[in-house]
Each structure stands twice: as structure tokens, then as C-alpha cells.
Specification:
The chain is α+β, with helices and mostly antiparallel strands. The protein has helices at 2-25, 46-52, 58-63, 94-103; strands at residues 42-43, 67-75, 81-88, 107-108, 110-112, 115-117, 119-127. The protein has four helices and seven strands, in the order αβααββαββββ. A three-stranded antiparallel β-sheet has the order 3-2-7, with helices on one face. Strands 1-4 form a two-stranded antiparallel sheet.
Length: 129
């Protein structure tokens, strides 16, 4: 009986720890960024402006790596990129190239009730030869 109690306590602690990490303790300011807004943030110049900033990595060209890199982008109320996280990458330098292009891009800020707000958005970046 003690063995089951010990497993229950350890399981509960692991659940609390994983919940705390998802709740923002690992990334402290994650909740400060809205997910749902009336007008989402958008890159100035559209996707074309981002693709012009991407340098196809040499390693990816040699290995003929293609696919989509999925990013989570944190945009502040001024339209500047505060952070970029790769959600799903394809490797060979493509993840870094996509994140770098996003960091160099200016965005129109997200708006909620007519006020510019911090927001996070997800975006796929296509790599094809």
C-alpha cells in the first residue's frame, strides 16, 4: 500500500511540475502575449518581405532538404519581434534561417479594441529548391 501511495505522490509532483512549466514559469512572459485578437499582427510587405530575407542554407542545398519550418512569433505593441521559437523544424540550417528572417522583419502590431497589443502568432516558412 505504501508503494502505491509513493507512486501517487511522485506522479502528482510530476504533474504539478509539468503544469507549472506550461503555465509560463519556464517562459515567464509568455502569458503577456495575446493569442486571440481582433486584428492579428502581420509582416509589413507580406510573406514576400520575409522570403526575400531568407538565405537558403548551403548545408540544406547540398542535402536537398525541403519542407516547412513552423515558428511561434512574439510581436510587441510596436510591431517589433521580441522572440521567435521553432515549433517544428526541418534542420540543416533552415530553422535558423527562418527565425533570422523573422527577427529582421517589421510587423504591423496586433490590435484589440482599437489598441495595439502584444501578440503571438504561428507561421510556416516553406523551403523548396
Amino acid at each position: 500500500m505504501k508503494k502505491y501511495f509513493l507512486f501517487a505522490v511522485i506522479g502528482g509532483l510530476l504533474f504539478l511540475l509539468s503544469t507549472s512549466i506550461r503555465a509560463g514559469y519556464l517562459f515567464p512572459d509568455d502569458e503577456a502575449y495575446a493569442v486571440v485578437v481582433e486584428k492579428p499582427a502581420a509582416p509589413v510587405g507580406g510573406m514576400e518581405a520575409i522570403t526575400k530575407k531568407i538565405q537558403y542554407p548551403q548545408e540544406a542545398e547540398i542535402k536537398k532538404v525541403t519542407g516547412k519550418v513552423y515558428l511561434l512569433i512574439y510581436v510587441n505593441e510596436k510591431g517589433e519581434v521580441d522572440d521567435v521559437k521553432v515549433v517544428k523544424g526541418i534542420g540543416s540550417g533552415c530553422d535558423e534561417a527562418a527565425a533570422s528572417a523573422i527577427r529582421k522583419t517589421k510587423f504591423t502590431p496586433a490590435e484589440d479594441k482599437g489598441v495595439a497589443v502584444k501578440a503571438k502568432l504561428s507561421m510556416p516558412i516553406q523551403f523548396k529548391l
